[in-house]
Write a sequence for this structure.
């Protein structure tokens, strides 16, 4: 039967986002407790449905930021050292492709060096899951 669509592996079972969420919550609750299941569901809703910044993200003080000779922060190096990006080259590509956001807005691809004070109080995001909050202080 050329051109005919194959029957899905779970024929007769309607999959919806709700059933998937319930299944995931049940599995997490079974292995980690009911509170963990509820917390995992809330975290998923916050990060992926609402596209909001989670509450429990790592923080880095402005004073701890590595600076170059000009006193500026080289953003690709920051992404490599604190956000798990593999290399400066990969970090540059992510920035150019709009995969790095500062407070929810894509970072300007031409600005690889930034003033440390410009990052204070801001949240860096790489992709959908990696976050870092820059806090004032040493």
């Amino acid at each position: 039967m050329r051109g005919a669509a194959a029957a899905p592996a779970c024929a007769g079972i309607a999959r919806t986002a709700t059933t998937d969420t319930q299944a995931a919550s049940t599995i997490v609750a079974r292995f980690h407790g009911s509170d963990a299941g509820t917390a995992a569901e809330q975290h998923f809703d916050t990060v992926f449905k609402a596209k909001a910044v989670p509450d429990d993200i790592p923080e880095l003080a402005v004073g701890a930021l590595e600076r170059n000779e000009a006193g500026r922060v080289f953003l690709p190096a920051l992404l490599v050292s604190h956000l798990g990006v593999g290399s400066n080259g990969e970090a540059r590509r992510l920035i150019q492709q709009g995969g790095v956001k500062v407070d929810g807005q894509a970072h300007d691809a031409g600005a690889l060096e930034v003033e440390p004070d410009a990052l204070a109080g801001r949240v860096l995001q790489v992709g959908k899951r990696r976050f870092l909050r820059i806090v004032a202080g040493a």
User: Anything to note?
Assistant: The first helix runs from residue 17 to 32. The mean pLDDT is 86. The helical segments are 17-32, 34-49, 75-82, 88-96, 116-119.
